[in-house]
């Protein structure tokens, strides 16, 4: 998409690009609560939505915002909320609800430093494990990452597409740098953008089962008000959507919630590789840090060091195969990230001890400077 | 081909430096077809305190979006000058408000000292356009983006009805920069 | 209630769905004509002829177990 | 005879509520009120939180949404704002709506969004086993107030009025005809409406407070829930410990989704 210069070129902040991407994806409902550094997403949509009949609402708190987007999604609206660390923590119970009831929605989390109120205006990537395991219980989840304004735009569209396709909440993680960096976004022709809408029930209301067992493990929820009367609950439920205590049905349900994502992992996972083919040192980086890593790779190549970069665009499900493939080729892996090794641990697991994995963590609110990565690579070599 | 030109605009929150940064980035990216990235760093307060906006301009791809070795630093306050001048590279440019920055940092760079705030208040008549006056000065002294592109970017960004005022501010700054160079 | 009595000449048909009745006794306690009694932990129609079709037993039955026609 | 079977999901019966629980009595009043109001079941969404009363949607044949604890009102706000044509009814309890969900109640009332909240007040957390709630009377015993509750209770209806609800009423399941009437009025109201329904919990509240039998609690409601007409004639002394029932607030004011629609129209037409 970024090479398509026939599209319109605009300068946008990452946060604004998310809002623009949501509009193109067909999102027409936003509920949120102000929090730095994500607030521009809400502000932008508060201007845009009323003009096109979309619905914006500022709720009384983060929990309410998450509840409202689930409610709106059940009426058939593509729904979005945006938040940051503390707000993301507050939303977790209802994110679990969306997983359990299989209600599509998108949550953008512009990460700042923590724990607690932490660093409201400074970047971090400390929520990557919270995005995976923040809500209680076993469940599958899709988490995307963006490293530029262009990607913020594209990944927001993809987040909606995946949410609608797999009937699940999708989390898009930005960090403060990406959210607040203004740069070029090339807006492609709308006819060239793939938009996925949720499927509609094929059967008549009397034969309808919202959570019918299917081969692809994806349920079909009819929008409220279209003649299909059914029940939605966060309790373990059967195919009709009613609560059950039947252990067999419960076991099947939880297995399916996990399997739904795992079995489609190849369709969901996306990575970007830079100079990885002949690399001796592999870097695994995401979000704004992947930009530092790309600079570092180029610098290393100038110095004759064969470095390469693996950038996951989807953090969860974790790209195990791609990491293992890299681990089998390189002599060492470096994982720079704005936390103390949250994804480095996953890289270690996925690489099955094939090579040493070196952590480069920063938690002081400063970005990772490409020179730091170069220095570490030099040390490893 | 220009590899990477790094500009940092620093001052106190509320001086409109983030807007000035966006204008510079848009001038380079939209009106000159180059790549430009603007980032910001700020404290929790909307007014006061040291704040900065950075612009990286390049004819190639810009990976790391923040400044690494500054080509140009603009400082409108003493505090921001002290706090943000460490990354200024050898032979770089430091533009300061002569009325507000008294202690200069030590280093091998060229210093351009002008009464930026005073130009805005005395010659243009409004302190609110200090950022645009600064843009005029910077455009002339840096010489990396054309006067025309910056003007177009200003007009696209400022509120309707203030175009004339902002153009005057830019011209006064540009002229002051010109005088200093000649 | 006097009006209701004269308007409905047919004797009342009171049905109790025993599998839904949980035996709370509310219908028995507040029947103005003592039509209902408790038997084996469930409500039972004892004096249907006395029913004035005030419907209170039906309205107050929490279990959807009583209907009066 | 009212045919309840047309409105319920019969296969889910008998329901889970205890013998003598008032929740079933309220449910029947709701179904009669819905029939009276003439709203279509296809276009009605019943939303609930967590607790005994919040199991209600499972028994009615409409679009039903059983949400997380305290959050029924935000989910309902999303449903209503997402599709304003839908009739949205929230079923909640005293714990759900005034403790964990208290903030949402206040703000939905302030926004005056067209949602009907039916708040079952049984003075206790029933489902978790009888812990005290924000409406447990001072001195009453609860699983977490074994020596008697030392906190003062919320005046839930008063709270909704103060927050800006356009319709507020109180009803009880002893005076079941009035209960049905208040629910019907709330359903008909354009704007945020709340009916606080006093309902007995013999298992968790009555048993600890010398009213173990359902009949005792119904008698307590008979003696202490006072219709407005009678309330007006009572002295301060007589009112002490008793609750006024009937319409407590009924006012017309701008409704949220209608105001939003106006904004959309004005932005689109420039008027």
Task: Name a few traits of the molecule.
heterotetramer, A: 381 residues, alpha/beta, Rossmann fold, 2 domains, 8-stranded mixed beta sheet, 5-stranded mixed beta sheet, 13 helices, disordered N terminus, D: 271 residues, 18% strand, globular
Write up this protein.
The complex is a heterotetramer of chains A (381), B (182), C (69) and D (271). Chain A is built from 13 helices and 16 strands. By secondary structure, chain A is α/β, with parallel strands linked by helices. Chain A folds into two domains: 9-192, 3-Layer(aba) Sandwich (Rossmann fold), CATH 3.40.50; 272-380, Rossmann fold, CATH 3.40.50. The radius of gyration of chain A is 21 Å and the shape is globular. The model of chain A is unreliable at 1-5 (pLDDT under 50). Chain B is α/β, with parallel strands linked by helices. Chain B has a single domain (5-114, 142-159), classed as Pyruvate-ferredoxin oxidoreductase, PFOR, domain III (Pyruvate-ferredoxin Oxidoreductase, domain 3). In chain B, 40% of the residues lie in helices and 26% in strands. A six-stranded mixed β-sheet of chain B has the order 2-3-1-4-5-6, sandwiched between helices. In chain B, helix 1 crosses helix 5. With 69 residues, chain C is α+β, with helices and mostly antiparallel strands. Chain C has a single domain, classed as 2-Layer Sandwich (Alpha-Beta Plaits), CATH 3.30.70. Chain C is built from three helices and four strands. Chain C is globular, with a radius of gyration of 11 Å. Chains in contact: A-B, A-D, C-D. The A-D interface holds A 29, 31, 50-51, 53, 55, 57, 59-61, 63-77, 79, 93-94, 97, 223-235, 242-243 and D 9, 12, 41-43, 45, 47, 57-58, 61-68, 71, 73-83, 85-86, 103-104, 106-107, 260, 263-264, 267-268. Strand 9 of chain A pairs antiparallel with strand 2 (35-41) of chain B.
Summary, kept brief:
The complex is a heterotetramer of chains A (381), B (182), C (69) and D (271). Chain A has helices spanning 14-25, 39-52, 62-73, 85-101, 128-133, 149-166, 176-180, 247-262, 265-268, 288-302, 320-329, 344-350, 370-380; strands spanning 8-13, 27-32, 55-58, 78-83, 105-113, 119-123, 142-145, 169-175, 182-187, 231-233, 271-274, 281-284, 307-312, 314-316, 332-337, 357-361.
Listing every helix as H and every strand as E from the N terminus to the C terminus, the arrangement of chain A reads EHEHEHEHEEHEHEHEEHHEEHEEHEHEH
Number of extended strands of chain B: 6
What is the CATH architecture assignment of chain B?
3-Layer(aba) Sandwich
CA-to-CA gap between the ends of chain B? 27 Å
Q: Give the strand order, joined by hyphens, for the main sheet of chain B.
A: 2-3-1-4-5-6
Rough outline of chain B? globular
* Sheet with the most strands, sense and barrel status of chain B: 6 strands, mixed
């Amino acid at each position: 998409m970024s090479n398509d210069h026939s599209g319109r070129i605009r300068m946008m902040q990452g946060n604004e690009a998310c809002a623009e991407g949501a509009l193109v994806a067909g999102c027409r409902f936003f509920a949120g609560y102000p929090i730095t550094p994500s607030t521009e997403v809400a502000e932008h949509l508060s201007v845009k939505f009323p003009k096109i009949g979309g619905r914006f609402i500022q709720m009384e708190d983060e929990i309410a915002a998450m509840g409202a987007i689930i409610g709106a999604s059940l009426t058939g609206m593509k729904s979005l909320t945006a938040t940051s660390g503390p707000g993301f923590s507050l939303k977790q119970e209802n994110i679990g609800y969306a997983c359990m009831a299989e209600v599509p929605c998108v949550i953008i989390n512009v990460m700042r430093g923590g724990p607690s109120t932490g660093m409201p205006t400074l970047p971090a990537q400390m929520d990557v494990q919270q995005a995976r395991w923040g809500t209680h219980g076993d469940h599958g989840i899709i988490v995307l990452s963006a490293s530029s304004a262009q990607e913020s735009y594209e990944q927001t569209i993809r987040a909606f597409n995946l949410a609608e396709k797999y009937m699940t909440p999708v989390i898009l993680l930005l960090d403060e740098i990406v959210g607040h960096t203004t740069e070029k976004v090339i807006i492609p022709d709308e006819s060239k953008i793939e938009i996925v809408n949720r499927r509609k029930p094929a059967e008549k209301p009397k034969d309808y089962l919202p959570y019918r067992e299917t081969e692809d493990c994806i349920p079909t929820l009819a929008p409220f008000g279209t003649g299909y009367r059914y029940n939605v609950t966060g309790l373990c439920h059967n195919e009709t959507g009613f609560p059950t205590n039947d252990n067999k049905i419960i076991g099947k349900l939880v297995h399916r919630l996990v399997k739904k994502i795992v079995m489609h992992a190849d369709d969901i996972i996306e990575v970007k590789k830079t100079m990885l083919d002949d690399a001796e040192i592999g870097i695994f980086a995401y979000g704004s840090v992947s930009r530092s890593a790309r600079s570092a790779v180029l610098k290393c190549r100038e110095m004759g060091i064969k470095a390469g970069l693996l950038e996951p665009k989807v953090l969860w499900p974790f790209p195990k195969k791609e990491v293992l493939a890299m681990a089998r080729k390189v002599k060492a892996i470096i994982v720079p990230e704005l936390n103390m090794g949250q994804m480095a641990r996953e890289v270690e697991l996925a690489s099955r001890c094939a090579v040493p994995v070196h952590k480069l963590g920063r938690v002081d609110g400063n970005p990772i400077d490409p020179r730091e990565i170069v220095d570490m690579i030099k040390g490893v070599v | 081909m220009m590899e990477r030109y790094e500009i940092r605009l620093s001052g106190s929150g509320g001086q409109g430096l983030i807007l000035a940064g966006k204008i510079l980035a848009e001038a380079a990216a939209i009106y000159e077809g180059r790549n430009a990235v603007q980032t910001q760093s700020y404290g929790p307060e909307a007014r006061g305190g040291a704040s900065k906006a950075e612009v990286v301009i390049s004819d190639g791809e810009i990976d790391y979006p923040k400044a690494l070795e500054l080509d140009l630093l603009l400082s409108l306050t003493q505090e921001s000058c002290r706090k943000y001048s460490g990354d200024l590279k050898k032979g770089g440019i430091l533009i300061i408000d002569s009325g507000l920055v008294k202690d200069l940092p030590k280093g091998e760079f060229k210093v351009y000292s002008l009464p930026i705030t005073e130009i805005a208040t005395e010659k243009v008549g409004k302190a609110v356009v200090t950022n645009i006056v600064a843009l005029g000065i910077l455009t002339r002294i840096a010489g990396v983006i054309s006067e025309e592109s910056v003007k177009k970017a200003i007009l696209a960004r400022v509120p309707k009805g203030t175009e004339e005022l902002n153009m005057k501010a830019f011209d006064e700054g540009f002229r002051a920069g010109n005088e200093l160079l000649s | 209630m006097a009006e209701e009595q004269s308007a409905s000449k047919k004797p009342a048909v009171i049905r109790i769905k025993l599998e839904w009745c949980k035996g709370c006794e509310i219908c028995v306690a507040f029947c103005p004509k003592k039509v209902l009694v408790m038997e084996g932990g469930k409500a039972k129609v004892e004096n249907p002829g006395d029913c004035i079709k005030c419907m209170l037993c039906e309205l107050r039955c929490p279990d959807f177990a009583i209907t009066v026609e | 005879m009212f045919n309840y079977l047309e409105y319920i999901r019969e296969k889910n019966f008998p329901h889970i509520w205890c013998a003598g629980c008032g929740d079933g009595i309220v449910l029947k009043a709701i179904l009669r009120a819905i029939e009276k109001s003439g709203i279509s079941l296809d276009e009605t969404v019943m939303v609930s939180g967590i607790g005994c009363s919040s199991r209600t949607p499972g028994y009615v044949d409409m679009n039903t949404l059983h949400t997380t604890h305290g959050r029924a009102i935000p989910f309902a706000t999303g449903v209503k704002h997402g599709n304003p044509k839908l009739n949205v009814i929230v079923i909640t309890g005293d714990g759900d709506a005034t403790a964990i969900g208290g903030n949402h109640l206040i703000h939905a009332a302030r926004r005056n969004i067209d949602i009907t909240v039916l708040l079952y007040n049984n003075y206790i957390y029933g489902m978790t086993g009888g812990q005290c709630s924000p409406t447990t009377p001072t001195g009453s015993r609860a699983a977490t107030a074994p020596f008697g509750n030392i906190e003062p209770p919320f005046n839930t209806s008063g709270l909704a009025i103060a927050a800006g609800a356009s319709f507020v009423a109180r009803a009880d399941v002893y005076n079941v005809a009035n209960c049905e009437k208040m629910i019907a009025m709330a359903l008909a109201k354009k704007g945020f409406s709340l009916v606080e329904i006093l309902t007995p919990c013999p298992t968790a509240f009555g048993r600890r407070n010398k009213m173990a039998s359902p009949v005792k609690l119904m008698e307590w409601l008979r003696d202490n829930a006072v219709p407005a007409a009678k309330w007006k004639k009572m002295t301060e002394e007589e009112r002490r410990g008793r609750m006024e029932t009937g319409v407590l607030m009924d006012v017309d004011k701008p409704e949220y989704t209608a105001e939003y629609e106006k904004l959309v129209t004005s932005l689109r037409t420039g008027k």
